[in-house]
Amino acid sequence: MNKKAIVYLVGAGPGDPGLFTLKGKKILEKAEVIIYDRLVSDGILSLGNPEAEYIYVGKTAGQHALSQDEINDLLVEKAATGKKVVRLKGGDPFLFGRGGEEAMYIWEHGYDYEVVPGISSAIAVPAYAGIPVTHRDATSSLAIITGHEKPGKEISSIKWKELAQGIGTLVFLMGVENLEFICQQLMENGRAPDTPVALVRWGTLPSQEVLTGTLDNINRKVRESSFKPPAVIIVGDVVRLRPQLNWMENKPLFGKKIVVTRARTQASRLVEDINDLGGEAIEFPSIVIQKEENLTSLYNAFEHLDSYNWIIFTSVNAVDIFFAELRKRELDIRSLYGSNICAIGPATRKILEDRGLKVEFIPEEYRAEGILQELENRVKRGEWVLLPRARGAREVLPDTLRQWGVHVNEVILYEAVPAGKVSKARTNDILEGRVDYLTFTSSSTVSNFVKMVGKDNVLRVNKKVKVACIGPVTAETAQSQGFNVDIMAREYTIDGLLQALIDDSNTGEF
Questions:
Q1: Region for 15 from its dihedrals, namely left if φ exceeds 0, alpha if ψ lies in -120 to 50, beta otherwise
Q2: CATH fit for domain 6-119, picks 3.40.50.300, 3.40.710.10, 3.40.1010.10, 3.50.50.60
Q3: Distance (Å, whole) CA 194 – CA 244
Q4: Catalytic residue at 187?
Q5: pLDDT (tens digit, 9 = 90+) per residue, 31-57?
Q6: Which architecture characterizes domain 123-250 according to CATH?
Q7: Which among 16, 37, 92, 504 is annotated as catalytic?
Q8: Is 42 a catalytic residue?
Q9: C-alpha closest to that of 9 among 109, 157, 112
Q10: Which pLDDT tens digit goes with each residue over 365-387?
Q11: Which of 27, 37, 118, 459 could bond to 13 as cystine, CB 3.0-4.6 Å?
Q12: CATH code reported for the domain at 257-286+419-507
């Protein structure tokens, strides 16, 4: 069946990827052409089909990548190819987004379109700044106004008197450059000079900034603080509620930029938790998990699983590869009957238990020494231990077990190798101190990070960025590479690392 060409006009929302709609995400994942604006965040763009053609058509004051007429022509040109085209716009496409013009142009040229609304910054940004646009004790009326109308326009499309005297809350979009004119018009038309005003820059994002004042002083405050656009302007008594309702900026990691060096396949939980706590997680994967090409030793171990008294898993990666290969050999967890299972920590235990296995124990200290302390009175001379793990792992565990007279079959499943692609922009942010924390969750993330940025740059990092490590082994590796370790988790887990970051952030020593 031949499908008629269609263009999707999709609202990306105010910036926070979590506020992007489910329908928008579904369409973006299948898009073949994505035409996007300046205010669409990287987090939302990353949700798109990686094979799609991405075309930037962003606009800044006085500088347009493409004019609106050229954007209209581009939409029709791409629709004519029969590909699935997405026009991705910040906020909502029909609220000052020229979406209506684009839809009309597409329709006039014989193509179908579909609109996917987005959460408007006019509503979401004030909410993230602790400002409800309506409130029963303050106002029940709201107006959303463009901030682009220039001073000196012969016939204004804005009814300033009605706005100034008849509407409780006024939200101006894209109006910072005209702020003085906006305030002047409101006061000249009857709004009290002491009416509260708030400007919110990068609203809904961890970099959110808020400046408050009144109609008669906010312009001076903007100049004195060098407050830059883009920002949403909120005028009205509802701004007075911000001290009580300012929820986002009270999050424990608000405003902190935290570099995550874990492999991208492992980083999602840490990234999500940092963002949930108000921080900005900056993904800079220093490692890639590379499975061993030759797994003959693992397959041989599978043939004799009933002979092992213990199987010790020291990472989630080892569990994933072990059981994936077990399935490939048409075996299942029944093959492990009779073996005691040990996990190095709670994350590894959880993924084992999710597969239906009982974990005999995890050590109190989540490292090799902790496992040995637990095993000392459990394992017997002459027993067999299967140890599936990473190439380059510390030898203290197998060496000590062998000294106890235990047979150890160490099977290498994977290696943490340096990530191949380095983001120059993110590297510069780290080296120039435009981030607050650099986190390491394993020794391999440390050593490979150094390979990526260069040993000579470790000193630059020490001077400008705090280094946080998940535990003592990682910290020792970081110190051996020349890093000053500022923070080490008391519990050697992701939760422990997050708590250590929160504790340090609360000291205010930046």
A1: left
A2: 3.40.1010.10
A3: 20
A4: no
A5: 999 999 988 988 899 899 999 999 999
A6: 2-Layer Sandwich (3.30)
A7: 37
A8: no
A9: 112
A10: 999 999 999 999 999 999 999 99
A11: 118
A12: 3.40.50.10090
